[in-house]
Sequence to fold (179 residues):
Amino acid sequence: MNIIRQRIAEVFRRRVEEVGYTGTTLDDVAKALRISKKTIYVHFSGKREIYAHVVEQEAAREKARLTAAVATAPTCVARLETVLRLVLDSGRRHVEQTGRTEWLAQYEVAADAFRKATGDLIRDLVQEGMDSGEFSRGDAGLVERMLTAMMVDYLLIVRDDRSYDRDEELLERLIRFVR
Fold:
């Protein structure tokens, strides 16, 4: 990867951690790197693309972590439940650490990255479960999209009411859905 592009992304990530997505400006990033704003635009089309890039990098690390976490689980059900639980825990932490306005600003990009990071893994686990007979036969891609949509929608509920905690019920229903 281009070193300048990576440095832009890293400074942008740090700024988001410090002042949030809405508070981060390309002027601040350019100033911190001692480059022109035009240089940023050579590498990224704008703030949203930089954020998407940062989230995608984090999502790739998360996918590797999830894959390692389920490697020793004995059944497809156990592997899928572990992934769903870890993803839900991560999503809940993100909601709790991010203000509502900030969360709304990040939602679309973050939700897309979430789907990219976990989608392949969930789809593969569902397909493996279908192939082994642990799950009902069907379209693993459709099931993955439905599981992901239910989790994202649940996190929208949590975002609006942070005390809402039906995580175990959700996980139970998700697993019942694929069986």
